[in-house]
Amino acid sequence: MKKRLFVVLTALFALTLVASGAIVSVQTAEAAPSANAEGALLSVYASFYPMYDFAAKIGGDKVTVVNMVPSGMEPHDWEPTAADIIGLENADVFIYNGAGMEHWVADVLPTLQNQDLVVVEAAEGLELREGHHHEEEEADDHEGEADEHEDEEDHDHGEFDPHVWLNPLYAKKEAENIKNAFVLADPENKGYYEENYAAVAAEFDLLDQEYRETLGGLPNKDFVVSHEAFGYLAAAYDLHQIGVEGLAPDSEPDPARVAEIIDLVKENKIRTIFFEELASPKVAESIAKETGAETGVLSPVEGLSDEELAAGADYFSVMRANLSALKNALQ
Amino acid sequence: MLAILEYDFMRRAFIVGILLAAIIPCIGIIVVLKRLSMIGDALSHTSLAGVAAGLIIGINPILGAVVTCIVAAFGIELIRKRIPKYAEMSIAIVMSAGIGLAGVLSGFVKNNANFNSFLFGSIVAISDFELILVACISCIVLLTFILLYKELFFISLDERAARLAGIPVGPINFIFTILTAVTVSIAARTVGALIVSSLMVVPVACAMQVGKSYFQTVVYSILFAILFTVSGLFISYYARLKPGGTIVLIGVICLVLLLAGKKILTLFRQSPGQA
């Protein structure tokens, strides 16, 4: 009996060894050619849509960019599959936003064997906003009730508000970080990347200017959103976002908060309750129904659907759609 | 009128909460007696697979959830009959199958927005459609429970004896399984899986501490469930808490107090005798 057990265990052990050896050899075989190939396109992995869009615009035809989060997915809860990790092993550049947006990155990066991977944290060097407490304090023209509440409320977003790309000037800085990484990984095409970056940077400036001009003259400053992703945008253009559910898109709201927002919407005659496309509109709809307001879409540009992509949408077009939605709501 | 009731969303929360608090313990007491307490959890998780499947093949996701739930509930019944000694095992098996299927299928869902809105119910965000749906299912469940009261009681205590007594066990189990599946799948979409799976068990456990007969236990468990839901909504509103969690915690605290109170009472009764 004992002998049989020993045989079985040994066989199992041997099998495990062989299997893991095979996996390792397959991986190295795959990794070898693409990493060293001369004159090949730079292989870039981007953690979600804005990173992908910026990288594609700067890299142009010198790079192939993979958006790791499939279109239509909510990136906050996304985690990489085994195929994504293998992709990273073979990539040249990996771009992520940082600031707590991609919680999986801290787990995955140390496990990679890819020594030559250039890793960019695009939000590096930006002044981050803490959670969503700050903005409520800044907007002191508002009644105290909401403020007190904000501090009590919990959210599972980590320390900082990660949605930096919604401020066009911050997005420009992210694009610059991405450009620097491309130059580092592929110095031969430095001029090309610099040129593309200059063009994109001008577009960011233009977008910023449009926001400033359009929103500056509007009488209302408050807008209601189901996902508090617009803190950087609100801070940049002197607006005030009122969030229903805190920072995470899928947390359940507490009834007192919903009641408060209903009062607020009625008092300030807010006409539009915004929700984002990738999260549930249920709460926004029930508030809108009760107050007679409309619901509208304000996209945090975290991901575009296949239809939007097919229609040629990008960061700039979505941000302009947001601008016109905001303009309608705040007039 | 109370300030809390001035809001339409709170009125809906109370209506739906009370309706579900009336019917879920009715189902709960029978599943508890059948040793299937976890069925609420299993079915509400499995219904996620139905939502995903519905979105993929383009039928109404709630219908998808109902259908999957029915299949899962029959799966549980089937396994339970094959392995009667370990009835709870059937739940673990079906639940893992359901979650696994939901995980795989969710990868094929194109539009996550839809998925989320069917996945996460909240008692403070209830649409017209959900209100009507809950009202209908409540009527059906209550009516069935009243009409089949004796038969269900008999079967849940001892299936074999019930069969010997001439009760049509098969058809009645069939009806009950379908009702359970439909109730769980609709309620989980409307108010969230947490409230459903806890209302199925906690009020029944409380009622068992005070009820002296089957009938009393049924009545008490409905009363407890309504008490938990109503006080949970009030407390979550005034103390700014999440409603689902508050309702569940009130139930559990109440159960702990009842158990403690019972213990103290027995000690109190013993001590004069000993003295």
Question: How would you characterize the overall build of this protein?
Answer:
Chain A folds into 2 domains: 148 residues, Rossmann fold; 140 residues, 3-Layer(aba) Sandwich (Rossmann fold). Chain A has 13 helices and 10 strands. In chain A, the strands form 3 sheets. A 4-stranded parallel β-sheet of chain A has the order 2-1-3-4, with helices on one face. In chain A, α7 runs antiparallel to α8. Chain B has a domain of 192 residues: ABC transporter involved in vitamin B12 uptake, BtuC (Orthogonal Bundle). The mean pLDDT of chain B is 89. The interface between A and B is medium-sized, with 30 and 30 residues.
Short description:
The complex is a heterodimer of chains A (331) and B (275). Chain A contains 13 helices and ten strands.
Largest sheet of chain A: 4 strands, parallel
Number of helices of chain B: 13
CATH superfamily of the domain at 3-194 in chain B: ABC transporter involved in vitamin B12 uptake, BtuC
Q: Kindly report the average pLDDT value of chain B.
A: 89
H/E topology pattern of chain B: HHHHHHHHHHHHH
CATH architecture of the largest domain in chain A: 3-Layer(aba) Sandwich
Task: Give me the CATH fold name of the largest domain in chain A.
Answer: Rossmann fold
Q: What is the level-2 CATH architecture name of the domain at 3-194 in chain B?
A: Orthogonal Bundle
Helix vs. strand class of chain A: alpha/beta
In CATH terms, what is the fold-level topology of the domain at 3-194 in chain B? ABC transporter involved in vitamin B12 uptake, BtuC
Write the topology of this structure.
The complex is a heterodimer of chains A (331) and B (275).
Chain A: H1 2-36, E1 42-46, H2 49-59, E2 63-67, H3 82-89, E3 93-96, H4 105-108, E4 118-121, E5 129-130, H5 133-138, H6 144-152, E6 160-161, H7 168-185, H8 190-216, E7 222-225, H9 231-236, E8 240-243, H10 255-267, E9 272-275, H11 282-291, E10 294-297, H12 306-310, H13 315-330
Chain B: H1 8-33, H2 39-57, H3 61-82, H4 87-106, H5 112-119, H6 128-147, H7 149-157, H8 159-164, H9 169-191, H10 193-199, H11 202-210, H12 214-238, H13 243-274
